[in-house]
Design brief:
It is a single chain. The longest helix has 28 residues. By secondary structure, this protein is an alpha+beta fold. The protein is 57% helix and 9% strand. The strands form 2 sheets. A 4-stranded antiparallel beta sheet has the order 2-1-3-4, with no helix packed on it. A two-stranded antiparallel sheet has the order 5-6. Helix 8 packs antiparallel against helix 9, helix 8 runs parallel beside helix 12 and helix 10 crosses helix 11. A hairpin with a 2-residue loop joins strand 3 and strand 4. It starts with a strand and ends with a helix. The protein binds zinc ion.
């Protein structure tokens, strides 16, 4: 028996420039007994004369060990799990992240990278990887501000797809009030960048854990990446549908999208990085050897439930996605 559950987190940036609901994360977990226990933890008191490490310091130390290239992102844009509002099955989850506990760091690692990417992207850009951050020009921002909301794509998306695509309702339906809907294609690209970086960082951590011969930890990081890897197909559908809708029903916006060089580069580069991550997932059998059996069930599960349909449905938007890609 597998317990299915959905986590939806909403992060409210206190930053005035970004004060609307800008964040929404959906993860699905199919592992047995995976429902997190909500417990009240005691306040840990530091002994006297021991240097005080902040929560961020503990996260940086952990990141240094497993995904060192992402330390710079944590340093500039750290987003704490204790600042997120997380609902599990509609119930508010307590903010009880404790950075001194390794299991908390492991459990939240990919989400921390995802949310920190949003934090970074809030300064008008898109993170590709920790060394590449593309910033929209003022002119591009002014153009994109007038674009339509993403929920209009319902006109070019089938009823079946709206039901089958796990992240549709949360990000692009009429009920959705998150950045991916409200900010149109720029919001979609922000979310695409966050999923890509989170998934990539989890796979870097998996790789390093394997190099340290810690297979159990490698499997855990790998499962985190699996839970989000198919966002690749979903966000390509949302972005492709946005471009298709513009081409068919709003030619003026369509022409403007094609002029947004930064956005198009962000799409191309994030796609390359995301495809590298999908490739790393596909070679898991070679790398995990006999431990592959620990993840095979989950791979099959996501393939059946999410990947097969989304991958096939994405073909409807292939030509529009190609048109969006920037020419090198
Ligand atoms: Zn997000």
């Amino acid at each position: 028996m597998n317990a299915n559950m959905i986590f939806v987190s909403l992060l409210f940036f206190s930053n005035q420039l970004f004060s609307q609901v800008s964040e929404c994360r959906v993860t699905e977990c199919v592992e047995h007994n995976a429902l997190p226990l909500v417990t009240v933890k005691e306040q840990t008191n530091f002994p006297e004369n021991v240097p005080m490490y902040s929560e961020k310091d503990y996260v940086i130390t952990f990141c240094q060990q497993y995904a060192p290239s992402y330390v710079s992102l944590i340093q500039t844009s750290y987003s704490s799990p204790n600042n997120w509002t997380v609902y599990v099955g509609g119930v508010l989850k307590a903010n009880d992240f404790n950075a001194q506990k390794k299991e908390d760091l492991i459990d939240e690692f990919e989400s921390i990278i995802h949310e920190s990417t949003h934090h970074k992207n809030a300064s008008n850009g898109f993170l590709i990887d920790p060394s590449i951050y593309l910033v929209l020009t003022d002119q591009e921002n002014q153009i994109a501000d007038k674009f339509f909301k993403s929920d209009l794509i319902e006109k070019v998306v089938s009823v079946e797809a709206k039901e089958q695509l796990f992240r549709y309702k949360t990000y692009v339906s009429k009920q959705s009030n998150v950045g991916a809907n409200v900010n149109g294609i720029v919001g979609l690209m922000d979310e695409y960048s966050a999923y890509q970086n989170g998934c990539t960082a989890a796979l870097i951590a998996y790789d390093n854990a394997l190099k340290n011969k810690d297979t159990a930890l490698a499997v855990t990081f790998f499962k985190e990446a699996l839970q989000t890897h198919y966002a690749y197909y979903e966000f390509n559908i949302f972005i492709g549908a946005y471009v298709k809708y513009a081409r068919l029903y709003n030619p003026e916006v369509y022409q403007q999208i094609l002029k947004l060089t930064t956005l198009r580069r962000a799409y191309s580069l994030n796609t390359q990085r995301f495809l590298n991550s999908l490739q790393a997932i596909q070679t898991a059998q070679t790398r995990l050897k006999r431990n592959y059996r620990d993840v095979k069930f989950l791979i099959d599960y996501y393939n059946t439930k999410n990947v097969t349909f989304a991958k096939e449905y994405m073909k409807n938007f292939e030509s529009d996605l190609q048109a969006l890609k920037s020419t090198p």
